[in-house]
Every structure is written in structure tokens, then in C-alpha cells.
Amino acid sequence: MVSLDPRTFGDVVDTVRLLARKLGAVDRGAEVAAQMLDTIEWVSSRVRGMPPPRVFFAEWLEPPFCAGHWLPEMIEWAGGEDVLGRPGEPSHATTWETVFALDPELIIVGPCGFGVEDAAARAEAIEWPCRAVAVDGDGYFSRPAPRLADGVRQLAQLFHPDAVPDFGLPAIPLGAGARARA
């Protein structure tokens, strides 16, 4: 039995290496870890020096939970500024009033355990004061796995679409008028 509890993106990368060692696949683990880190470096180099949008990532909706653990790091590497989450710390409950008072430019809805369609459906009734988009929280943001690197790419594309091309991860614009813009 191996007990894992990563808190940061670096911890997730270390977990990939540890699991590979335990499975007798050291070289493959090193390759996957290197791919994750290469993706982060590629994304970061594309957005470095660009003005960071103020972002709130909702890991849950009722009540809203801010980004936690590795997700604030992902937001930073993608060229954004997390208005509430802190790297390496757990996500925590807040209120929509608090979130809206922080004046984010973008709200990303990616509840833990839900894909993009369910996230969008759960967020349907909320009146967004800014641009908002639903993403696949379960697939690319909540689970400590190699696909977190793809999540960083998606965040960068949402923050800086002229610098980072869309490579096809699912995202659904939210709010009144969002469907007309899409």
C-alpha cells in the first residue's frame, strides 16, 4: 500500500515518479514527469510578461470553494492571478459576495468530481458579474495526475488566447449573452 497526499504541483510530479518506481517503470515515470514540466515551461514562456487577469477558480459552487493545493500554481504558470486561493493550501469555502467583491475578470467553474457539462448545468442559475466559463474540473484540475499539465495549457488559453492556441479541451461559456458570444 502506498499513501499519497500531494499538495503542490511539484508533489504531483514526485508522485508520478514514486508510482513509477513502485511499478518498476522508472524510465516511463521520468518521461511522464519531464513531459509535465516541459508543458509548464512551454506555457509559462508563452505568457511571461503579459498582464495577469484576476481569476477565481470555483472548485465547488454551493458554497463556492476557492482553488487549493496545486491549482493556484497552475493559474500563476498560465499567466493569471488567483484572487483567493493560495499555493499548497487546501481550498476553502467562501461566499459569492466575497468572490464578486474581489473583482475577478474571469471566473472558472470546475467543480471537483464533475465534467464540463455538469459544471455548466450546476452554474446555470448564477448571475456572473464578469466573464465566466465552465471546464472539466474532474479531468484536468482536481485529480493529481499528469493531465494537470493540460489544465495549465487550457488556463493559459483562457487567459491569453492570442499567446496560447486552443488545443481542444472542453469549455462552456456561462451567463447571459455567453451563448450568443460562443
List the helices and strands and how they pair.
Elements: H1 9-22, H2 26-47, E1 54-58, E2 60-61, E3 64-65, H3 71-77, E4 81-82, H4 96-101, E5 106-109, H5 116-122, E6 131-135, H6 137-140, H7 148-159, E7 171-173, H8 178-181
Parallel strand pairs: 1-4, 1-5, 5-6
Antiparallel strand pairs: 2-3, 6-7
Task: Provide a descriptive summary of the structure in words.
- The chain has helices at residues 9-22, 26-47, 71-77, 96-101, 116-122, 137-140, 148-159, 178-181, and strands spanning 54-58, 60-61, 64-65, 81-82, 106-109, 131-135, 171-173.
- It contains eight helices and seven strands.
- With 182 residues, it is of the alpha/beta class.
- Helix 5 (116-122) links the parallel strand 5 and strand 6.
- Helices cover 42% and strands 13% of the residues.
- The longest helix has 22 residues, at 26-47.
- Strands 4-1-5-6-7 form a five-stranded mixed β-sheet. Strands 2-3 form a two-stranded antiparallel sheet.
- It has a single domain, classed as 3-Layer(aba) Sandwich (Rossmann fold).
Give keywords:
about 180 residues; alpha/beta; 5-stranded mixed β-sheet; two-stranded antiparallel sheet; 7 strands; about 40% helix
Determine the strand fraction and express it as a percent band. 5-15%
The number of helical elements comes to: 8
Give the CATH superfamily.
Nitrogenase molybdenum iron protein domain
Give, in order, the helices and strands. HHEEEHEHEHEHHEH
User: What is the SS-derived class?
Assistant: alpha/beta
Cα-based radius of gyration, to the nearest Å = 16 Å
Specify the helix fraction band: 40-55%
Assembly annotation: single chain
The largest sheet is:
5 strands, mixed
The parts where pLDDT drops under 50 for at least 5 residues are: none
Question: Order of strands across the widest beta sheet?
Answer: 4-1-5-6-7
Query: What is the distance, rounded to the nearest whole angstrom, between the alpha carbons of the first and last residues?
Result: 47 Å
Coarse shape: globular
Annotated CATH architecture: 3-Layer(aba) Sandwich
CATH class: Alpha Beta
Number of strands: 7
Mean pLDDT: 94
